[in-house]
From TrEMBL:
Protein name: Programmed cell death protein 5
Entries under PANTHER family matching the protein: PROGRAMMED CELL DEATH PROTEIN 5
GO molecular function terms attached to this record: DNA binding
Family: Belongs to the PDCD5 family.
Annotated Basic and acidic residues bias: 33-44
Region (Disordered): 15-44
A GO cellular-component term linked to this record: cytosol
InterPro entries cross-referenced by the UniProt entry: PDCD5-like, PDCD5-like_sf
Superkingdom of the organism of origin: Eukaryota
Pfam families: dsDNA_bind (PF01984)
Amino acid sequence: MDDPELEAIRQRRMQELMAKHGSGNQQNGEQQKAQEEAKREAEEHRQLMLSQILSAQARERLARIALVKPDKARGVEDVLLRAAQMGQLTEKVSEERLISLLEQINNQTSKQTKITIQRRRSVLDDDD
C-alpha cells in the first residue's frame, strides 16, 4: 500500500527515459508508449489494492456503479485506498460498509435543486 512511493519511482523512471532519448519523432512515440505503460501499471496496481481491500460483493457493486457513474466510483476508490494507506481499514470492506460509504458521499455531495416559478402577467389578464 505504498502508492505515493511507487508513483515517485515511476516519475523518476519517466524522467530518466526522457533524458536518455533525444528529441524527435522517435522520442514522441517512445515517450507515449512509456506513459501508456506507466498508466497501465498504475491502474493494475490500483486494481490489485482494491481487490485486497474489498470483498467480492463490494467489488461487484463498485464495478456496477463504475458503469453508470465512473467519476463517483473513482472517488469512492480513492477514499478507500487512502483509508487503507492510513491503516484505517482493519478488514475487507463488505458490501454493507460500501453502501454506507456511498450514502455518506451522496449526502456530502448532494446538490440541492431549487425551482422558482415566476408568472408573467399577460396583457389578457385583468385584476378587475
